[in-house]
What does this fold into?
Amino acid sequence: MSKDNPSSNPAAKLWGGRFSEATDAFVERFTASVTFDQRMAREDIEGSLAHAQMLAEVGVLTNEEYSKIAAGLKAIAAEIEAGEFPWEVGLEDVHMNIEARLTERIGDTGKKLHTGRSRNDQVATDIRLWLRNRIDLIAAELTRLQGGLVDLAEREADTIMPGFTHLQSAQPVTFGHHLLAWNEMLNRDYERLMDCRKRVNRSPLGAAALAGTTYPINRARTAELLGFEAPTENSLDSVSDRDFAIEFCAFAALLLTHLSRASEELVLWTSSQFDFIDLPDRFCTGSSIMPQKKNPDVPELVRGKTGRVNGHLIALLTLMKSQPLAYNKDNQEDKEPLYDAADTALDCLRAFADMVPALKPKKENMLAAAAKGFSTATDLADYLVRKGVAFRDAHEIVGQSVSFAIAQNKDLAELSLEQLRQFSNVIGEDVFEVLTLEGSVAARDHIGGTAPNQVRAACARARKALEAR
Ligand code: ARG
It folds into this structure.
């Protein structure tokens, strides 16, 4: 059957019994999903094997019928794996392609496979199985990335760089501390992913079309065979809601949002204006016209891909909105956004997991940048407070000192004691300890602070948490 010639015999459709004319050629293509849902072929077969085994266990199929079906499905799986399966658009979707092929291969016994189920619970099962597999791959890649981040953070626990607010130099921090901030974002993404997995991991199989089935099925058994935590509770809900896919896209959108923030920082840091980081050539490309260019394409692309994942989240929310119970064909539109969100998340994580261990910080440049911009001004204010000055007055005194230093084209640490004492006579020789960058970071010595020993302790905790996953 070609794409444009639908079967002239409507009964050739698996549902053709009540039809008296063939499907319109365009409608056939318009309603088909096999071009994309064949990605779930493996899961479809896995679900069918579990369903058939359960039917045999409860006596709906004989053991002989089950053996024939199972052997046929396994042969089809091999055929698909080898790229030799004859996918047909006229058979609409992955489910009917495989079922029709089964009957072709094993004869009439194949027609018994669909007993006690519907494509509605079948597709809901397939998506959950497919997504669960993707979640596990994504979780592993996320963990690999985080492992690399924590290693780098530990190596850079003493490396001083400017910390920013409003992208203006604010206070010195350590590079390790900055990397651990990324790690925290990713920790929450991991938690969200695992939480989403719990709700993905329930079996809708047995909900049938919408109301359940009259056969003595054992839903707990198919759930168990497929590694689901439990069967879903309500048949109408089971075949209709795709909230688990929406949740996954929400996870992916946040993950990409976090990766886009890190990407943006890498793009800034690799620029000649910042020049904080060297990104090895293998993650960059050149320009076809400007020979001097080395562009940070990988982080730029990750930043750009955030847009499509955000789009997929909105697409699925909009798809689900106002759908009456139970299954509606609208839901066929859930797959492409979901597949792409999962593919994009996995690819971007892979890019980052490969890239992070290869980042080469340019420590002198980071240190020099931190020394500019009066980043120890707050330390001077805190020093004055320790000497008995009220914080508001200290703020004023430091403001005047900064203004004076700007006029002298110097940093605070470069002013003489005499010059500093013009603004407050409580200032003594010991002030220069707090005006150093090392002193500034070391003083922020509490949980969550940037002091190098705190960063090392945080790395140890982070590594332990990763190992416990
Ligand atoms: N291809 C369909 C989907 O992706 C499978 C379920 C079709 N069910 C139906 N009653 N038409 O949603």
Q: What stands out?
A: The domain at 120-367 is CATH 1.20.200.10 (Fumarase C; Chain A, domain 2). Strands lie at 160-165, 168-174, 202-203, 230-231, 277-278, 360-361. The radius of gyration is 31 Å.
